[in-house]
Amino acid sequence: MSYITAHVLDATAGVPARGVEIQLLTPDGEQLATGITDDDGRVGDLGPETLEPGAYRVTFGTGDYFTARGQQSFHPVVTVDFTVQAGEKHYHIPLLLSPFAYSTYRGS
């Protein structure tokens, strides 16, 4: 398992969101890693084995996901900014998604 993982669930359809592009970025936009959610809506390998403490950003390509499903959506991209603390072993970033709303939290 990588240091950063993510999971996307489509709350409207009640299924994992397969095929969502996810990017791991520095706050100034430097791309560190990319991934595409699998059949279970997960990216289990997003980036390096460790990150230096500090601020990072994960973006989810939600607009493309809904377009591929033939649905309109409000958020073309969902951006989650988070802070890596020294000594932490893993960060999991789940996203619960619908065409017009989303929620996220620090997973385990």
SSE order and pairing:
Elements: E1 4-10, E2 15-16, E3 21-25, E4 31-36, E5 42-43, E6 54-60, H1 62-68, E7 78-84, E8 91-98, E9 101-104
Parallel strand pairs: 1-8
Antiparallel strand pairs: 1-2, 1-5, 3-4, 3-6, 6-7, 8-9
Subunit structure: Homotetramer.
Function: Catalyzes the hydrolysis of 5-hydroxyisourate (HIU) to 2-oxo-4-hydroxy-4-carboxy-5-ureidoimidazoline (OHCU).
Catalytic activity: 5-hydroxyisourate + H2O = 5-hydroxy-2-oxo-4-ureido-2,5-dihydro-1H-imidazole-5-carboxylate + H(+)
Point out poorly predicted stretches: none
Helix content: under 10%
The CATH superfamily is identified as Transthyretin/hydroxyisourate hydrolase domain
Got a strand count? Answer: 9
* Shape-level CATH architecture: Sandwich
The Rg value, from CA coordinates, equals 13 Å
Multimer state: single chain
What fraction strand? 35-45%
Spatial shape: globular
Q: Could you state the order of secondary-structure elements as H and E?
A: EEEEEEHEEE
Task: Enumerate how many helices there are, as a single number.
Answer: 1
Count of domain modules = 1
Look at the structure and give the CATH class. Mainly Beta
Largest sheet: 5 strands, mixed
